[in-house]
Amino acid sequence: GIENPAFEAPGAVLGRHCYSGPANSGADAAAPDGPGPDPDPDPGPDPEEGPCGWGSCSPRALQLCNNPEGYLAAYSLLAIFQGIVVNGLVNISISTIEKRYELNSSFTGLISASYDISFCLLSLFVSYLGERGHKPRWLAFSAFMLGLGSLVFSLPHFSSGKYQYGGSKFEDTCQTAGTTFANATCSASTNSSLHKYLYIFVLAQLLLGVGGTPLYTLGTAFIDDSVPKHMSSLYIGIGYAMSLLGPAIGYVLGGQLLNIYIDIQMPKRQDTTYTKVDQDDPHWLGAWWIGFLACFFAIWLLIIPFSCFPKHLPGTAKIQAEKISETHDDGSQVLVQANNIGQSFKDFPMALMILLRNPVLMSLIVASSSEALVATGFATFLPKFIENQFGKTSSFSATLGGLVLIPGAALGQVISGVLVSKCKMSCKGIIKFMISTCSVALILNTVFLFAKCGNEPFAGVSETYNGTGTLYNLRAPCNANCKCSRSMYYPVCGSDQVQYFSPCFAGCASYVVNNMKKTYHNCSCIGKAKREKGSEDFLSEAVPGKCPTQCKVLPVFLTFFFFAVVFTFMATTPTTVAILRCVPDKQRSFALGVQLVFLRLLGTIPGPILFGVAIDKSCTLWDINECEIKGACWVYDNERMAFSLMGISAACKIITIIFVVMAVHFYKPPPLTKALPRKTSEQISVV
């Protein structure tokens, strides 16, 4: 960070860089009794504003990157790759990892949470210690750990052997003879040794958390250090927007890699009647590990540019001297200056208490945590919502979700960054701007009220097998003799426009393959097609997949939700800028660390859990495996799901607005800052 250079190189600092009074005095630059009487507003070059390079090796070509734009480019690349791995590849690979290593959802939930756990444990200490350190080298360390975490995450594939495709035969049609395999399945699941790889995945996520911690604390603060105040929001907005490209690329890349067989060379299935093996096969697993291995090499290459940046970019001291303090006037700036808080680790408790007692900071932190809860909840479950609400496939729903969330979030952060920069908003003006964006997002959130769909007919859930069965019971007289497994969800759409859990539960006795597409025939549970006017030539048949939905409001939902995302994320960059401005100069990186800890404890960790519980409450058909253990949910009550998600989102946005209003109420600008810039090195402290 840009702390007092005297702390780093005693005796090598010009007199005018020395401490000359409290930062809030309003006249510190001209204090007659200070050790630096020079009134020249130009503080001169900072001895730590060195050239770009490694020691004495400073190639002239590298100096073209020794500026805020060059640093922003490197920062953006690292943020993109961090997003690809943590928020893209990990999320899209979780379901494949569950199947490959026989892990239940609670274990994969632990894998997902391990990143945030590591981040929470280290964020305060890294941001506090890095405050006085060499921030670009901290980001080189970040790149090293992110690359190492990516490598470790891919290791289970190389040590677990070949995937035994089709180890247990899956019969999707009605089998009236033979024995069930429940006991074998239970035994195999109980005695499996694949679950031991859980610890490797958790370790990899912990390493990724270590690598991500400096990126969004010290890395962001370094941007604010190096650019004029009115440009800070623009640069930070661009950096945050670039970080959102990572998940988008990760989803696209991961989705394409899952189209490749997990062991690259695909074995042939023993079932000679159906040799085509594709993603529709229940046993298919994609090559989830390739993306992690590629990111390992790419991220480690970024160690090179970060290791060559100087501690301060050229011109930083002059930029900081011209900045006007907007620290919340609660005496914390004077306290930090008078006690030189931040010089050693023993000051950590007092530094933390100063921030926790700042009502403006804490109000902004709670508001941002509430927004993060909603954002991470929708990032996790929006594809599932689209899939169930509008009857789309999982891959198409994930694509739609990414097309709405990622561009909307990036656009919102860039727009807000530009507006704050061009309008040169004050700290109080920025907070008021956040109130307006959150209010518009709350209004757009009502899209869940009118852009929702009812459930399509589903035999055994909302239909009763033509009156022969009962609701919420997949069994009926028409499939009573079929040995069907409830653990293998393979939906088919009958010729009667009713969806069935699987060909077996539809009573289908046979199938034919045309152009590698299955069509099931002789389905005893399927009645005559509703559109066939009693034709006797029509056979009871079914095709794989869900029945086409009759709901046509998906474009309306996506349009309104896109703008809701835009206005939601228009508060992200202003929140960061307001936090950087309302705390003492020497505590800005530390303030971001405190914010990110609360952001995870109150937002990103409980967010997916709360959304998951709300969605599970709307479940109408659970998976019951061969061991009679309840697993995932197959069918949801669409209206209940829509109202639940809208309720959570609306409640969180109301909480956000309340705390942002409180931040405006509590904020008190320091006196005389409208006319007097900061000029002492103590005020040139970390941004």
UniProtKB/TrEMBL annotation:
GO biological process terms, semicolon-separated: monoatomic ion transport; sodium-independent organic anion transport
Keyword Disulfide bond found: yes
Amino acid composition bias (Acidic residues), ranges on this chain: 39-49
Composition bias, Low complexity: 20-33
Domain spans labelled Kazal-like: 472-527
Compartments reported by the entry: Cell membrane
KW DNA-binding (keyword) present: no
Mode of membrane association: Multi-pass membrane protein
UniProt keyword terms in alphabetical order: Cell membrane, Disulfide bond, Ion transport, Membrane, Transmembrane, Transmembrane helix, Transport
Region feature Disordered, mapped onto this chain: 19-52
Gene Ontology cellular component terms for the protein in this record: basolateral plasma membrane
Lineage top rank: taxon: Eukaryota
Domain named Major facilitator superfamily (MFS) profile: residues: 72-668
Pfam families: Kazal_2, OATP
Ranges annotated as spanning the membrane: 72-94, 106-126, 138-158, 197-222, 234-253, 287-309, 360-382, 402-421, 433-451, 556-580, 592-615, 645-667
Molecular-function GO term, any one: sodium-independent organic anion transmembrane transporter activity
The family this protein is said to belong to: Belongs to the organo anion transporter (TC 2.A.60) family.
NCBIfam families hit by this protein: oat
Xref: PANTHER family: ORGANIC ANION TRANSPORTER, SOLUTE CARRIER ORGANIC ANION TRANSPORTER FAMILY MEMBER
Protein name, entry field: Solute carrier organic anion transporter family member
Organism of provenance: Leiothrix lutea (Red-billed leiothrix)
Gene transcribed to yield this protein: Slco4c1
